[in-house]
Amino acid sequence: MKFPPTLLQQLVTLLERDIDGATLERAQQHLLDWLGCAVYGTRSDVAAKLRNYLVQWSGAGESWSLNGIDRNWQDALQYHGALGSIAEMDDLHRTSTLHPGPVIIPAALATAEMVQATPQALLEAIVVGYEAMIRIGRALGRDHYALYHNTSSCGSFGAAAAAAKLLALDPEQTVWALANAGSRTGGFWQMRHEAVDTKHLHNAAAGHAGVQAALLAASNLRGPSTLLEGTQGFFAATSPRAMPLAVIDNAADNWLIFQCSFKPWPACRHTHPAIDAVRALGDISAADVRTLQIGSYSDALLFCDRPHPESPAEARFSVQHCVAVTVLYGKPEIAHFEEAYLHKPEVVALRNKVVLQEDDEHQRAYPGHFGASAQVTFQDDSVREVALRNAWGDPEWPLSQADIIDKARTLFTAGGVSAESAEDVIEIGLNLVKEKDLGNLFNALRALGMHRV
Questions:
Q1: CB 305 within 8 A of CB 356
Q2: In whole angstroms, how far apart are CA 217 and each of 17, 37, 61, 84, 137?
Q3: Are 296 and 276 part of one and the same domain?
Q4: Is the pLDDT at 319 greater than 90, yes or no?
């Protein structure tokens, strides 16, 4: 008896469609964007803790170099996979509410080096990885996001798809890879409630699970093709209101990497609509503000209502802090989320004047649109207000390539990279498809302090 194809089988089929030059160029932009975020991440406490772990506990294997110590691909991926989200500037897909770059790109780079892939093959793998991750993510619905970190729970599928593409697995093997990667999913939001580093470990673990599953599938280690829709599968276990057909809907559409947003501000994306709305108010003197009222969707308040942040990480998840530094300094910059700014009297005073509330219109539009309104009441009782349906960096209001390059330069500088090295990697990253091999890219990574992938 012949059974109809499962969701994973149908997904793998649609991942095989052609990838044109414009899509490869888009993948180059996401690669550069991730590099900036990851290089900044190398200077973090999280990176230092991971390096300490690798030096003490890493196993032997195919070697690479981290600060002069030989390491295997698994260690490289665990390290690089944790770096892309530290600045909270990683790319985003709205309706699936996940960040593909921090998981897919380090997974693709690690696999590309293993198989000595061409630059085009690397970029194609990134596109395919984004597609699989987003399609499964958008099928999950809001119930899943209430408890699960979607970047983690869906990232393993995307990493497996990217690795499978580079390993040239056949369709059946690719299904096994996705199924086994997804069988190990996880990533609970409880880590949001304590000052911990777990979020970044989520991303690294997802990338590792995906690549490992693909490598095992290459040796014909099988996985359940009904993993998504099965009675004891992914949707049944993690999302009672899942929309399974969203995995395969609109198969003829353009690649979903084009629906991703680039983040201009060093804070949680849920704060960005408020930042943009406050910027749209024009010049404001903080001394003239009586109250600053922000209206947005419920998740923005759930994740980012932190009037008294006590750490840089908490400040990046504080609408109050984000809009305060925007009023005071014109736009939020990396330095504004460091310890020195958390307790500045002018910042604290303005944070205390910020009032958050859920806005029905923005809630109805979410997650298709990340919007916010801002209303400032001045000391003389005058009022100024503005409402924005989308945040800067979304497809409706995109960053230009020049903006993406400027963002990368800023992050490279903050990561301690010289201007010359930064320009070299920007040139290589945005012309990667013209390269004959990945040697120049890996050399650039070493120059950026990333060492071999």
A1: yes
A2: 21, 31, 20, 27, 23
A3: yes
A4: yes
Cα(341)–Cα(196) distance, integer angstroms: 21
Q: How many domains does the chain have?
A: 2
Tokens of 86: 């530290």
116 and 129 fall within a common domain: yes
| Parallel, antiparallel or unpaired: strands 289-296 and 354-358 | parallel
- 373 shares its domain with 430: no
Say how far apart CA 220 and CA 52 lie, in whole Å: 35
**Within-domain flag for 295:** yes
Residues in the chain: 453
For the domain that residue 439 is a member of, what is the CATH number? 1.10.4100.10
Considering the domain boundaries, does residue 199 fall inside one? Answer: yes
Same-domain status, 285 and 223:
no
Indicate the average pLDDT of the chain: 93
Q: How many CB atoms lie within 10 A of CB 278?
A: 27
Taking residues 297-314, what's their average pLDDT? 95
Is the pLDDT at 202 greater than 60? The verdict is yes
* 395 in a structural domain: no
Of 116, 181, 128, which is closest to residue 155 (Cα–Cα)? Answer: 181
CA distance readout (Å), 235 to 7, 92, 248: 11, 22, 15
User: Are 178 and 38 members of one domain?
Assistant: yes
Lowest mean pLDDT among 310-314, 315-319, 417-421, 441-445: 441-445
* Domain housing 24: 7-264+403-447
116 and 252 part of one domain: yes
**Token pair for residue 379?**
């000391």
**Locus of tokens 């580093």:** 197
Q: Does residue 1 form part of some domain?
A: no
Longest dimension (CA), the chain: 78
Q: Are residues 47 and 168 in the same domain?
A: yes
Residue 112 near residue 166 (C-beta atoms within 8 A): yes
Q: What is the mean pLDDT of residues 178-185?
A: 94
Which residues touch 277 (CB under 8 Å, ≥6 apart)?
294, 372, 373, 374, 386, 387, 388
Task: Evaluate if residue 252 carries a pLDDT over 80.
Answer: no
Model's pTM, two decimal places? Answer: 0.94
> 192 with 276, same domain?
no
